Amino acid sequence: MDQTKAINRYRNLLVVCILLILALGLALYESKIEQYQQHKSSDNTPVQPAAIMTEPLFRIGDTRYSFDMLTNDFQSPLYQIRKLSFEQQLLVLEQAIVETYIANQIALEGNPTKVMAELFPDLGVTDEEVADYYQQNHNTQTPPLETLKPQLSEYLLALKREASKNELLARLLVSSEAQLLVEAPAQPTAK
Known about the structure:
Elements: H1 2-42, H2 50-54, E1 56-60, E2 63-66, H3 72-109, H4 112-119, H5 127-137, H6 145-174
């Protein structure tokens, strides 16, 4: 029973971490979409790319049907699918930005250890942090700290590494050193 409780705590912690990462990604995504829309609005150009709206989706006889030719009954679910796909694409691209940036920095510097130390300073786990985490999450069925210490250290280091990569991504996007070039899917038009 207590082991199940510990496992559930661990799962809950993972879910919270994933939700925090997704929230950061969503906040970055929304700010970039807002910047993009403001930029496009200031140019007096349409916010959504026309190509997405007019690209043929299917053909019946000689007539090709595009997204903007469909009724809202079909536009809405297609939009939802495209939006979910786009959000997943953004998550992958954000990871690609970070990993590619790190690889480029290593290629420029030639010293992976130095680059990682510069990009992610103080990325380590202390015995005190491991002990604190253990104290907060152990129960009567949990093995002793010394038994779990290596796994807990790796887990806490992975959490810190992920948080540091998210901070690096945010710095790269805010400073415009990196930029997502994909565009959000077009919203359905009322028909």
